[in-house]
# Entry
Amino acid sequence: MAEARLIPQHTEQALRALRDAPMSVPAAREHWKYSKLELARGAITDAPNADAVEIAGVPGALHAMLADSGFCPLTCDLLLREPRIQVLQLTESGRHELKVASAATPTVIQVASGISAEVIDRDQGASAWIICIIEDNATLNYHRLRSTQEVQEWSKLQFVQHRDSEVTLTSFVSAAAFRRHDVSVDLLGANAEFRFDGAAVASARQHIDLQSHVRHQAPHTRSKQRWHTIGQDRATLTYRGRIYIAEQCNGVDAGLTNRNLALGAGVTINTKPELEIYSDDVCCAHGATVGQLDEETLFFLRARGIDERTARRMLAEGFLRETLSGPLADEAAHVLTGSVA
Amino acid sequence: MSDMANTAAHPLLEIDDLHAEVDGKAILKGLSLTVRAGSVHAIMGPNGSGKSTLANVLAGKPGYEVTGGSVRFDGQDLLAMEPEERAHAGLFLAFQYPVEIPGVSNMEFLKTAMEAAAKARQETPLTTAEFMKKLRGTASELDLAADFLKRGVNEGFSGGEKKRNEILQMKLLAPKFALLDETDSGLDIDALAVVGNGVNAFVDEDRTRAVLMITHYQRLLNHIVPDVVHVLADGRIVESGDKQLALTLEERGYAWLKRA
Ligand SMILES: Nc1ncnc2c1ncn2[C@@H]1O[C@H](COP(=O)(O)OP(=O)(O)OP(=O)(O)O)[C@@H](O)[C@H]1O
Ligand SMILES: [Mg+2]
# Structure
């Protein structure tokens, strides 16, 4: 079973780590800046959980592994110098319910070689910084659901994948006053595969920003991402999806789709796929769309006697449902479709 | 059914001097047609003559502007009704190109549509068990495997499967009037017989119903014998006759009918 260890240190330091790490809150020069940084600060200054378990010392093995993987050297140093992290070492297959104290306490989930683990990450009531290290031949199915709307959240989720590892991420999100999710994936070992299916609904003046960054750094690595959103009222939805394919990474297969439905004239949608490719023999497909419900389809349903309101609702739900899979799918369907007017 | 009985029957659909345009372009230019209960009419006509436009105008598709004439359906002013009200009144359009709706399962869609129909008729909707039983039974009559009910509406269905799915909807919703827009196109020989039997049964079961089918091919008429065949050209009915007319058209094409 999971072993949880927490190393206490200054919250300030941890917060700085969060801010300084490659994916963290940019000072002022963010390339694609649609999240207001003032709001973001509110989201990441949560107090650490007083109930946190305290033990000393970062396992040397973990440090070595982080260093080996070339993973986030800054973070790595900080973990050593200012170690306040929660480490979950998953050495047996099975399901784990994740509890995160706050973003000030990064959680490192290490999935041991050859096992197949499932992590359920329901509303944490705070921002979270989660780093998953998936060793050779390991499988991680990571399922995230965010249903509470009375929060400000800026969460970071990072996957470091070694040879022949597989990650399936599902993320279903009901927007909030402020939510930003950063997803970063490093495919370090050959044949590693990352799949992501997610959906979000934002209403009123809610804000949701997903920034995904997938780095293919080994040959024959695969990634497939699908993100569907619905915006209503005066909501803002932002998506930036970066795919990076390093040199000498032949046989990479990367795909990304982002589809957005704007249900209402006051909705703002920003979407930007970015590709950076340094190998020749790769397959990389991306697409982003912003649109309304299809009139043709709406008419079809009405011609079958379904009233317009119900028909609109069915289509919006269907659009979300296309991405719903995994153990949280039913719960997510309930949460997300419940917030479609 | 004899012609005498036919003319005495209740007129279900009465189209009088219908004019309609799309994007400012006149398509229907004074179309008149009456279909009585218990009868099967066929409409044939060249590509682009306005057959689907007629179907869409009757079903109430947004974007089609009626600029003249009237349509009465079962005694009501059809053109004043919303698309869903037309369906509730008993009008069913089988689409020439049925849409795909990923994410909405065929079963869920059919259940919602049947509940809406029951509500409009002020009947108690079927229980889930009754619905499932009816659905499975009807699907198997049309050779549609259970798998088609779980998939998204028409999602990845072949052309012929989509057409059979339209007939499945028709059977389940049990309308008064079925308007079939090239439901025979894309069907293989066996499917054509299945759909033909389905349509025949639809009228034979209940003589208060009627069918108007748009087709290009005489071969459908081997399965469904129409009482009247009409030719629609340039937005009007230019010729009407019995099933013999379809054979003549098959042989001679449309050119001989065209008015100067
Ligand atoms: N949105 C539109 N804008 C302009 N013209 C249109 C539009 N929709 C249909 N039309 C035109 O109206 C005419 C009639 O089209 P319709 O689809 O009714 O023909 P049809 O008789 O059903 O043909 P087919 O046998 O090919 O199915 C065509 O010339 C078509 O191009
Ligand atoms: Mg047509």
